[in-house]
Amino acid sequence: MIAHDDFASEPVPGLPARPPLGEEILWQGRPASFALARDAYKITWFAGYFVVLAIWRASIIGNTFGEGVLVTLPYLGLGLAFCAILYLVAIIQSRSTLYTVTTARVALRIGAALSVTLNIPFKQVANANLALRQNGTGSIALETMGDTTISYLVCWPHVRPWHLAKTQPMLRCVPDAERVAKLLADAAQTRLNQPVVTLAQPGLAMTPAE
Asked: Percentage of residues in the chain with pLDDT exceeding 90?
């Protein structure tokens, strides 16, 4: 698993270098902005919090309906401004992200302030977990093998929540997630089923590796 952080130029959008001969890009996509704001930044939770806070303040301070409305306005305004900031951050994060699935790997170009790319070969993926919502958006978490350490904080929000001991990179809040997950699974299965060949001795014919 390799991380790159130099993106002065991208020969291929989302990848730090052109794919090797024989490797093809199967899919590229970004997180859905509102889904990312809802799932990662909890915008709906914060919106509900400010609404409940405004109603509570109105119930203990406002003696009339008009007074109650006036009391709620500052809290609702503050909540609206806060949620607008969260949504803007989600939009920026979404536009700076590009997920790529090829015939050999999954690549995550992530980061708004500091861009990095995680290259995850299929041979290092032990399992892929799909969390699907009713509207079709979903997140695909990749359970990796080996001793490679991935920083949870550097990769957030493109990681599976609360899996701190063993960080799981995640294609988060992608549209049509079920189709993407199937495409990824089929590509990984095809790649892992390809025979690997090695030279038994110099000058001899190629033989399948054990």
From this structure: 52
